[in-house]
Structure formats: structure tokens, C-alpha cells
Design brief:
mainly alpha, about 55% helix, 12 helices
Amino acid sequence: MTAPRLENRLPPEDLLERDEHPLRELAWLLAASVAALAALVLVTGLVARWLAPKLPFEHELALAERLLPVTAPADTATAARHAALQALADRVAATMALPPGMRVFVSAEPSELVNAYATVGGRIRVFHGLLRQLQSEEALAALLAHEIAHVKHRHVAAGMGHGLAVVLTLSVVAPEGAAQAAQGLLGGAAQLALLGYSREHERQADADALAASLALYGHGGGLAELFAVLPSTEAPAGTVWLRSHPDTAERLALLEAAAKAQGARLTGTTTPLPQALRALPAAKP
């Protein structure tokens, strides 16, 4: 048997004269890897967005209790505001057929932003800036019904599930960066809804708000009042409400069409807000 012959072969003489760039193959490899990762992120996110809302609400509630514990108000005026908001929210929720074990926890935020949002575990925050704009219980009830609908249909869970899935997928290539992103996502759960919902989600929440208004008051005037005070496309660029909700004029047009189709009125008797919600502290300059 002949022993194998070992030799050092010289590189081809025309190596430096070839047209192929030595980094071209690496560039193609990197491009293919990025494309594969992007596809994986997309698919994983879509699956998580579909799956997260199907998990029992008790798991979402447990997460909220760790991240956003309900604490006692610091003073009697704040306690009275929270109690008034919670009492109205409970009345609204009673008309909305929430799944067993699901409830909402409402509080007021001392900010002059004209906004409100629902976040993980049924937590709902209403900013003082928006409360100052509302003149009736009906308008506040419509606002709360809209946010409760986001909780009922698990829109928040869908958004959070999508975000976490993307972070976990990215952890394959950047473990440290993904861990920081996951921590930031969970730590900022209270602000998740400010990132915005889809138009489908917003229309679903508006439809539920109209149904709740009709059940409680016999008319949708509160929802019409709410839309009248919300920022429109003429508002200053960067307005928080416009970053997280569709254009108000479009929503009002859809409301009018829905009310007409149901033979419902968009005007009716109104009730003043509870004194605790009208006696807000002076806005800070």
C-alpha cells in the first residue's frame, strides 16, 4: 500500500487577477443570515401575537402584580379620585360581559397629557390632562369602556407577546443585548399601550364603547363628546394621543355610521362628573 503523498500547493498564479472580490462570498453569507433572522423574527412574532391572548388571564394578572402592584393612594383626595374612577369602571364593565376572573383596576395619573391607556393585567390609567377636558360622566364612561375593551379582547397581551417573542429570537445572536431589551420591555409594561394598537383593535374598542354607552345611558352622546375633545390631525406634531390612536375625525365618522345603522342617538341627557374628578390639583406649569 502506497503511503499518501503530502505537499504544499502554491496558490493559482491568477488569484489576484480574478474578478471576484474576496469579501463577496462573506457579504452574501451575511445578507442571507440577516434575511433568515428577519423571517424568523416575523414568524415568531406573529405566532406569539396569536398565542398570547389565548393564555389564561390569571397569568397576565400575576405578571402585573409583580410589575405594577396596586398601591394605596398617598392622600385622601387621590384616594377619592381613584375610588370614583373605579366605581364607574365597575359599572361599565358590568355591561361588557368580561370573561370570568377578569377585572380592571383604574387610577388617575398626575400628568397633563390628554390621554389614557390600558396595560397588562387590566390596569387602566387616565391622565389628569384628559380628565380636565371631559364634562360628563357619559364621556368618561365611554373612555373607560374603550380601554376596558382592550383588556377584554387581550389586545395588550397580544402586543406584549409579540415584543417578547422578538426579543427572545434576537437573543440567539445577541444574548446580552436581548436580555437588556427584555428587561426594558417588561419594566416599561405600563407604557406598552402608548405604542399603539392596530386600526382593527381600535375599531373593536370603539364599537364596544358605543354598546356600553347605549346599555348604560340609552345614547352614545358620551362617546361623541369624547371624540370632540381628543386631539385631531391639526394638533401639534408628536401629540401622544395621535401616536397611539387613529385620527379622531375618522373615528367620529365611523361612530356616526354605526349609530345610524343601529338607530341609536348620539345626543341625550348628561350627568356631571363626580366632584372628586372635577376637583383636580392645579396643573403644573
